[in-house]
Amino acid sequence: MVFSSLLFIFLFLPITLLMYYGAKDKWKNIVLFIMSLLFYAWGEPVYVLLMIFSTIVDYTHGMKVEENLNKGNRKKAFRYVISSAIINLSLLGFFKYADFIVSNVNIVFNTNIPLLHLPLPIGISFYTFQTMSYTIDIYRGDAKAQKSVIDFGTYVALFPQLVAGPIVRYQTVADQINQRIHSEEKFADGVNRFCIGLGKKVILSNQLAVVADGVFNAAIGNISVLESWLGIICYTLQIYFDFSGYSDMAIGLGKMFGFDFLENFNYPYISKSISEFWRRWHISLGSWFRDYVYIPLGGSRVSKLKIYRNIFIVWFLTGMWHGAEWTFVIWGLLYGLIIAMERAFLNEWLEKRSNAFRHIYVLSTVTLLFVIFRSLTIGDALDFYKVMFGLSNNPIVSNQLYIYIIDYWYVIIAAMILSTPVVKIAKEYINSKIDVNESKSLQILYGLSLSMCVLVSTIMLCSSTYNPFLYFRF
């Protein structure tokens, strides 16, 4: 079940909200826990057992870590942290990377070990990182162990951020698990945020996906040079509105149930360096790797050589986190190389260039690297690059290119504009220039625009079965 589905919007969510607000405060977490398990079980009933197992493992390990810290036995407490990490990473490794490892062993050693072909549990990369951070935070003294297994299970299985984040660390919501604020204003903010995310996903991302998928799924010899560029530009916009839209819906749903999740995107396509881009893109993942990998390795407080080592370790793991394919590994390592170059000398050089040049540098780099991210194999990516740069016999233009432009030009232009903070800046400017009565009129107009957004999204969902969600792959 996905947030941008009619089943979720008009059945699951209303029923859950009625049950949640109809329950007494002491029962609200139980309602959330049960409904979250049902949400997850809708698509993968067997893997609910995996999530419950992971919940019990980390709940008991967290209790043991705190118990030994209170006794002054930090070594034993640390062993429980390691035990928790090993169990979590073993589960993630088995379900996500087993076939990747076996297939590479078969290639290197010319063996014929059969693949497992296990379906990837939805959201396992996200909730594994969340549960790992729990025991680490307790060991560091950043959080207290949760005494109720139901309350801890609510944190792990919480459906608003379960399948695609943002990655919610326990320390950021520890106080909200048992005591959170519910108000009409907060609920309204949540509804607004959900509607915006729904529009991003359905009206923009799904339409951009038609072009991107059409180009990348076509035979490489049948696409033109300009068509390849249009395809990767649409994919670059698609993945942003897909994932940021889902994050907006998750944050909005969290507010409806009284939670405040941290932001996950901050207009990354306006960045002026790749380092800045990754401070604005998938913020929860970047901060997780920073706090639990980069800094423990020494961060920037070590020698230059070790700093670059730390950068490459983080970006190797970032690539692997996204998927069990060499395309993701190389994609991650290339980002590590660019960020290391920026730290070494490139940032100093970029600061002397114009803002326009720096924006072009970021957008072109991100777009070109998304070719590797989107391709199934490195060979596919190289073939696509050849078409993009006219190194093959493909034509410059094609009839299909004209069809895409005629059918989707307005969506592409709208996506380009809305990927920048133009609307946000305009809204802030207008609010600073109007009086109270005009403000009320604008609020009504804003409410009507959100209602129209939901109406259009609903019509599009009713009239089409094409509703892809990219981050289910991860």
From TrEMBL:
<dbReference type="InterPro" id="IPR051085">
    <property type="entry name" value="MB_O-acyltransferase"/>
</dbReference>
<dbReference type="InterPro" id="IPR024194">
    <property type="entry name" value="Ac/AlaTfrase_AlgI/DltB"/>
</dbReference>
<feature type="transmembrane region" description="Helical">
    <location>
        <begin position="328"/>
        <end position="346"/>
    </location>
</feature>
<keyword id="KW-1133">Transmembrane helix</keyword>
<dbReference type="InterPro" id="IPR028362">
    <property type="entry name" value="AlgI"/>
</dbReference>
<keyword id="KW-0812">Transmembrane</keyword>
<dbReference type="GO" id="GO:0005886">
    <property type="term" value="C:plasma membrane"/>
</dbReference>
<dbReference type="Pfam" id="PF03062">
    <property type="entry name" value="MBOAT"/>
</dbReference>
<keyword id="KW-0472">Membrane</keyword>
<feature type="transmembrane region" description="Helical">
    <location>
        <begin position="30"/>
        <end position="57"/>
    </location>
</feature>
<feature type="transmembrane region" description="Helical">
    <location>
        <begin position="6"/>
        <end position="23"/>
    </location>
</feature>
<dbReference type="InterPro" id="IPR004299">
    <property type="entry name" value="MBOAT_fam"/>
</dbReference>
<keyword id="KW-1003">Cell membrane</keyword>
<comment type="similarity">
    <text>Belongs to the membrane-bound acyltransferase family.</text>
</comment>
<feature type="transmembrane region" description="Helical">
    <location>
        <begin position="77"/>
        <end position="95"/>
    </location>
</feature>
<feature type="transmembrane region" description="Helical">
    <location>
        <begin position="358"/>
        <end position="381"/>
    </location>
</feature>
<protein>
    <submittedName>
        <fullName>MBOAT family protein</fullName>
    </submittedName>
</protein>
<dbReference type="GO" id="GO:0016746">
    <property type="term" value="F:acyltransferase activity"/>
</dbReference>
<feature type="transmembrane region" description="Helical">
    <location>
        <begin position="444"/>
        <end position="466"/>
    </location>
</feature>
<dbReference type="GO" id="GO:0042121">
    <property type="term" value="P:alginic acid biosynthetic process"/>
</dbReference>
<keyword id="KW-0012">Acyltransferase</keyword>
<feature type="transmembrane region" description="Helical">
    <location>
        <begin position="401"/>
        <end position="423"/>
    </location>
</feature>
<keyword id="KW-0808">Transferase</keyword>
